[in-house]
Design goal:
mainly alpha
Length: 104
């Protein structure tokens, strides 16, 4: 970490570095929840992926749906998932794809 608390990693490409860091936080959140609840990590990864996908779909279709649906879905996201939601649809796509790879 540098003096501004920014993570730096030689293997981290600049344009994806923040997303990779956010994803690491998301995976840690999922693993911690699995340990605390006794649930299967793979199942929690799948649930997270579904929530992110549903939120992304709602955002994409926002002009055609009630905004309250998006808000309700946003409130169901975990703190780490909300960071991806705030980063936009490209970040959501990144997280959804990365979770798919994590399931393998």
């Amino acid at each position: 970490m540098d003096k501004n608390n920014n993570h730096t990693d030689a293997s981290c490409e600049n344009e994806h570095c923040n997303l990779q860091i956010l994803f690491a936080h998301l995976l840690n959140e999922i693993k911690d929840k699995a340990e605390q609840s006794g649930n299967n990590t793979q199942e929690l990864i799948h649930r997270s992926q579904n929530r992110l996908h549903k939120y992304k779909d709602l955002v994409i279709h926002l002009p055609h749906i009630d905004e309250s649906e998006v808000f309700l879905m946003y409130t169901s996201l975990s703190p780490a998932e909300r960071k991806f939601a705030k980063a936009g649809t490209e970040a959501l796509s990144f997280a959804i794809d990365a979770l798919e790879q994590a399931k393998s």
